[in-house]
Amino acid sequence: MSEPSATITGMAGVVIGDDGVARCPWGAGEAMRSYHDTEWGLRVSGEAAYLERLTLEAFQSGLSWSTILNKREAFREVFAGFDADTVAAYDEGDVLRLMDDARIVRNRRKIDATIANARATVGLREEGGLEAFVLGFVPAEQPAPGDTGEMLTVSPESVALSKALKKRGFAHVGPTTMYALMEAVGLVDDHLVGCHRRGCSGAA
């Protein structure tokens, strides 16, 4: 996450922006504000939406999230709008094409994982599909972090989701990456207490 550019009220707590609105520290800067305010922590629907978030979280590993957001449209283009059937059919020629595309993160392991995950997503339709599968790991209780120091990076549910996806052929879906996915799509509400987006996911 990017560092906040506004004044922090309390140690790693919510940040009051120049618009007078309280936000999580990472969402206070101009670069991340829109994503924080309009997308992070909101439920999404559809197979492509879940495959996209899973893919982007995997590519983000080791990089800043702002880097991935800046390349998001290129990712959508090269991965055919995250249509699982299309990406599942990618071959070595497609991999080489992607490795030559400077608009995305050119990491062979992550590109290979994306193709493997598209194929696994197609296979998961027999169990109700990727969306329903991920939603089966919503935690019974939601966290309520008062500052960033109280935020988790892994949970029993993200560990279980990681294991379940790996069992079904998914790659680059470690527990930390899956926790980030769960935060991004609103299964876990990790907006800080006091943030104006707290509760936006509707997670109980």
TrEMBL record:
InterPro entries: Adenine_glyco (IPR005019), DNA-3mA_glycosylase (IPR052891), DNA_glycosylase (IPR011257). It comes from the Bacteria. Pfam families: Adenine_glyco. It comes from Nocardioides bigeumensis. This is DNA-3-methyladenine glycosylase I.
